[in-house]
Structures are given as structure tokens and as C-alpha cells.
Amino acid sequence: MKNKNSTKLFEEAKQFIPGGVNSPVRAFKSVGGNPRFIKRAKGAYLTDEDNNKYIDMIGSWGPMILGHAFGPIENEVRKAVKSGFSFGAPTKKEVTMAKLICDLVPSVEMVRMVNSGTEATMSAIRLARAYTGKDKIIKFEGCYHGHGDAFLISAGSGAMSMGHPDSPGVTQATANDTLTVPYNNTEALAQIIKKNKGKIAGLIIEPVVGNMGCVLPNDGYLAFIREICTKENIVLIFDEVMTGFRLAIGGAQERFGITPDLTTMGKIIGGGMPVGAYGGRKEIMEMVSPSGPMYQAGTLSGNPIAMSAGIEMLKHLKKHKDIYKDLDEAGLELATGIRKSLKELEIDYTVNQIGSMYSLFFTDKQVVDYETAKTCDTKTFGLYFNKMLEKGVYLAPSQFESLFLSTKIDKKLIKKILKANLESLKEIKLG
Ligand code: PMP
């Protein structure tokens, strides 16, 4: 496979951009080899600067649930561009977007648009603190909530792949206010809440984790969390930046039937444009400025072009709810196929899957939390990743990421992916 142009661009990029990329995992550091520089994407495919074409299993890390450059979204963006790029003043589209989100996610009674998932989570914990008058927050080991200081403690995916899970630059004082507990462990959570009684403002969780690879909550785990948060006056924040509008139209909270107090969103609501949002109970959201005293702002927030893309995306998902059934079926077919290949080759790896999210973990342990995720053989994953890439399948360049399907990955493509998977695993096994 030719890689001359990407290699040249990467060398050049490294002189002007730290590590040559604008977000760390993109650098292929944990899998080896040079990142591919993408020039175009359409439907299920990415095309790189050397004209290699790949089946894309990341979908811009989640938002491309309808495939790349989806026609109706492209049309709306084209129309919007003609009316100007940014006004810094309220627009009708922001009202449409807010109403749509509140309609599709019943726990969200009011919502504030921001520009990224990071902004959404940072704002949500500030709000939890403002609302409760308490300081500490709980997060789970291996969960990622963006790069806000308070979250860069046992931070999952990117940080996990880079081998420095905590970042210099985060002060000890900030770290002291972030309590971390293992995912899927009710006992540890109950204990930390007991030890810090009356001090915890909020608990933030990925209801299904995407950032240590795909990890599902145990039966009853989210219900336990809901109950203990209510009892202890802790604001429960579901970080649905990955799962929102993906695992169901109403996100993981709809799928699992659990109602959080606040929800953070991103990715899909921008249809690929830089968008995030946080929302939830009216009583809490009314604390946000200028309605209340908690300050949070954004010059480009609610950007009209981003709103146009997001509104079209959500309208389409709302109108075609059968998409979720199709995505569930595709996810299951892929996971079942991978498990079959593993069995055939007598390899004891683990596949976690729910709906259109899945991960193949290079470990024989059940992956239920950060500790078990860390048992993966990341070196062999790197080999597998590169073999899949050579066969035209673009996976996330880290063991600790979930993969995301789009509606454009049909049965024919699933067959192709499974063939590449079997061949790649075979080649690795043979050495
Ligand atoms: N929360 C979760 C669950 C995420 O997966 C991510 C990003 N992958 C974020 C927050 C941060 O979003 P962004 O990269 O848009 O800042």
C-alpha cells in the first residue's frame, strides 16, 4: 500500500504541530507506523492523500452515524453557508435544536449548546458544584470526559494509549477534588461516597464506556448509581458524548431506562461539526448564566452552520427510528462473526458489543473495567491494526477505543470486514 504522501505530510506536520497532529491518538503512536492523512470521505469510506480507500470503522469518533457527507446534511450546510458563518447573536436554529434535543431526550428539559464534548463536561461539573454547593466529583477509572483538568485523572483511551494516564499541568488541588473508583464496582463506590459524605457535588459516568474500549455496565449497575446519587444529593451526570443518539434515539439512558440529572452530548448532534451540549433538569439548568449565577459562555456556541448540520441529523434519526434496529443487527452480526473467527483459530480474545459500538480486546479476560482492559496485549493489537489497515479497514488506532458502525456499513461490507479480520488474525498467529 502506497504511503508516500501521508509520510511526507507527517514529517512536515511534526515541525509545526506538536507530534504532527491536533489530537494525540491520531498519531498512530500506540500502533506503530505513520498516520494516514485523509483528504476525503463519503459514505462508509475514507480516502487518504495516496488515494488509498478504507472502510471507516471510527466515523470521526462517533458522529458519522449516517456515513460521511450524508446528502441531506450536506445540503443544509450549503444552504446555511449562504446566510453567513457566525452572528454571535441568538438564532431560530438554536431554538429548533434545543426543542429537538429536549423532545428526543426526556431527561433534558433545558439545554445549552457548546463547541465540544470537553466544554460540555467541564460546564456540567461546574453546574453540579454550583447547584449543590459542594466541591468533589466522582469519576470512574478509564472513563474519558475530555481534557478538562478535573478529568485527567485515570483518563482512559488517549491518555491510556500514550502511557501517561495523568497529565502534568493538572494541579494537586484539582486532583484532590476528583475521586476515582473502578467501573462496575458497587462496593467501591458506596465506600468512597460514605468516606466523603456531604462533600460530593456530582458523579460523571459514561453509561456505556467507549474510552477503555467498549465496556458495558453490569446488570443493575446504573440503577444502583441512580439510587445512591439521589439518596446522597449527588448530581448524576451521564456523559453521552459517544452514546447519545447512537445506542438509541434517547441515548444510553433510554436503552437502560435510567434518568440522569444532567447529560453531556457531542459528536452526533453536530453531524460532524464542532458541537457539544449539556442539559438536564430545569431546576438545575436555570442556574446557568444569564438565567442564574453559574457562568458559562461561548462566542461561537450555537453556530448557525453547525446547528444546521445537527438539526438535519437529529430530524433524520427521529424520522427513521428503524435505523437503530439495523445498527443493532449490524453490530451483533459483526461481533458474532469476529467471535466465530476467534473460535476457529482457537484464540481466546474478548469481544464486547452493544448496538453499533464494539471492541475486540486482545486479552482472554472479560473486560469490565480499567484493570481488566489493561490486561490487553497492545503490541499484538498494533500488529492487527496495521494488517487491517493494509487490507483496507481503518480501525481506531488504539486498543482502548470503541469502534462505531454507520448505516452505510451494510451486509456486504460486514463480510469484507470479517474476511480482513480472519486473515489478519491468521497472519498474526502464524507470525
Ligand atoms: N466525553 C466522552 C465520553 C468522549 O468520548 C469524549 C471524546 N471522545 C469527550 C467527552 C470529549 O469530547 P471532545 O473531544 O469533543 O472534546
TrEMBL record:
Its main location: cytoplasm. Pathway: Porphyrin-containing compound metabolism; protoporphyrin-IX biosynthesis; 5-aminolevulinate from L-glutamyl-tRNA(Glu): step 2/2. It catalyses: (S)-4-amino-5-oxopentanoate = 5-aminolevulinate. It is an enzyme of class 5 (isomerase). Its EC number is 5.4.3.8. GO terms for molecular function: glutamate-1-semialdehyde 2,1-aminomutase activity; pyridoxal phosphate binding; transaminase activity. The modification N6-(pyridoxal phosphate)lysine is found at K267. Gene3D superfamilies: Aspartate Aminotransferase, domain 1, Type I PLP-dependent aspartate aminotransferase-like (Major domain). Pfam families: Aminotran_3. Homodimer. This is Glutamate-1-semialdehyde 2,1-aminomutase. It comes from Lacihabitans soyangensis.
